[in-house]
Design brief:
The structure is a homotetramer. By secondary structure, chain A is an all-alpha fold. Chain A is built from nine helices and no strands. Chain A has a domain of 132 residues: Tetracycline Repressor, domain 2, CATH 1.10.357.10. Chain B binds a DNA duplex through α3. Chains A, B, C, D: Keywords: DNA-binding.
Chain lengths: 193, 193, 193, 193
DNA sequence: GATGAATGAGTATTCATTCAT
DNA sequence: CATGAATGAATACTCATTCAT
């Protein structure tokens, strides 16, 4: 990766995360870097191209943190993954903003990138659930529905952290896990026991 | 409400839900109705104006279905509300699409409309949780985190229904409730008992 | 003249004098009268038509005050005419505004209306000058130039009154006349003596 | 100043002076130069912007010719200034057209540009008058009124030259001066003596 | 590699005018 | 006489993209 290309990608990510796809112009990207308009097109086919690559990178960064640990302790693995992603959000608001607030229907290609990412996360959750059931830790349930529910709960808590309406990622993940495992009803025990 | 205005709003909702705000042009709206460009501006100040009104209406339609039932049975109330909204989604994919896939950062005013709506839903959930705790049905928990989690789970399941990746709204809601109430761990009882 | 027609003309004059031709819309005229857009076109062919008729009327009102008195006392006649027009300006700012600040090159037809009016005023002045020369009161001069100069001086003083930068019409006319007759140089007598 | 910018300004001045602000379109400017619509907006913020800059330039060109000579000979200075401006008008009809026939009430900002210019010319005249009085050359008079009168006379003669209704600028200025200094009444001497 | 002037298709918006009721 | 909904031509302005230097 060329230095210039990298430079543009970094700046573009920052700007797209603040301004969204449509309101950010190519001029703003190049002006903010002090480079010529033509230089931009030396490294990127067009505006869609930068956006796609920004999205891809961002998704990859998160995926690096999604470890497919050995499945002996599926719930622990899930906990770790959720926590590591929420931590990332706390640290890198640009990434979070892109992932959570990406406008769908911009362009089918863009949507696919996130859909694929979401799909990966979903299947990670599904696999943990299935393994848990196999091991007798997790009760029988509709995995399709529940994995989505977990995913959604997680995403929404992530947004809460991003907006500053929730405070600590650690606390949120524990609360989330506890909720997911024990449910809301009174009279349960901690799942780790 | 004038007939024309209604006609435009209905068509605009349909088109915005399919195409998003930016890619839909005013020309497409009027062409699709076979009316003159000027006619559009007779009823709407500008493109933002239609979009705002479409969004407002859509939110209102859903809110009509969010009944603030007497809180004696908070969990039952929650169940009904979630179900009625998911049913709506099943029936009216345009509404669902607008609500779930609205691009944030389009325009602060637009975002506020949905934020306000989401806020209402969140507080509905919070109130049910708090009442449940008061009544001793729901165990102590961080209401801020858990209400978001429930909301997120619900939204994500809604999206799944919309995309056709999940089948029945009824089944999904029951599964969701059971998940939320009993959690995932083996060896729990049904909350209704 | 129909009552409605009159009503529209009066309002249009008022609005055109404040807003100018281009920035005033037909909608504003009809809205301000509480009548339908169609009603306007019952009495006027188009927007140009009202403007033309407003201009014509306004010019006619002034012309009524421009008396072609018997020429025995040409300078006295000139004084009276100038005074009567400046008085009108003091009283009717709408008329003054239209006459003095009409944007040329709007439309040839409009320009002609004022040009014709200006032409009349000029020839009034010219005739007074010529008569004065004939009578030996006025010294030999280039009537074309001087009549324009008198006209211009008069118009500019009118604008000064309109803008409130000059105070009394009477005083201004006397000063103007004295200037025109005696000139600026020291050591002259009053022309009436 | 970039070559293109200059090119556009020159053409715009020419077109505005012939067609006025409203009837001239941006398309006409660019078509007449054979450049793209976007090129125009590279150099000018909008249509108002070109007009404003054309007006400012034009005023500046004239102001360069308005010399604030030492005041020992105030009337001679006035004569020179009036003459130099009238000469300019003879030579540059576009400038003259813009200055004399600019439609007021287009836009407050535009009006201010000319008002400021007119104000400068007026104060130039006022200062000459006051100095003249101080030196005992000019008789006591209401300077506010008389300076306006001189200005108006001058403007109107300028218009006459522009329209071709008056012939020579030199002759007109001398006639104008003689009129202003000696007045119209018979039996006066030349002011230079 | 880098530049930045030039491009022009695309879009929102206005407003005088018409005409069926 | 009066209405006012509907029209659509006209226009300003934006911005992604190109290409000669």
């Amino acid at each position: 990766m060329k230095k210039r290309e990298e430079e543009i990608l970094v700046r573009a990510k920052s700007l797209f995360s603040k301004r969204g796809f449509h309101s950010l112009t190519v001029s703003e990207i190049v002006d903010s870097l002090g480079i010529a308009r033509g230089t931009f097109y030396l490294y990127f086919k067009n505006k869609d191209d930068v956006y796609r690559r920004v999205l891809e990178r961002t998704v990859q960064e998160i995926e690096k943190n999604l470890k497919v640990l050995p499945l002996e302790r599926p719930l622990e693995q899930l906990r770790r993954n959720l926590l590591s992603v929420l931590k990332l959000i706390e640290e890198d608001r640009e990434t979070a903003s892109l992932i959570f607030y990406h406008p769908y229907k911009l362009n089918l290609e863009f949507d696919e990138i996130l859909e694929e990412f979401y799909g990966k996360v979903l299947s990670l959750i599904e696999r943990a659930l299935l393994k848990g059931m196999e091991m007798g830790i997790v009760r029988e349930c509709n995995v399709k529905v529940i994995s989505r529910a977990i995913f959604g709960a997680f995403v929404e808590v992530g947004k809460g952290l991003l907006k500053g309406e929730l405070q600590s990622a650690e606390e949120a993940v524990d609360e989330l896990l506890s909720f997911g495992l024990r449910g809301l009803l009174e009279g349960r025990n901690d799942w780790r026991n």
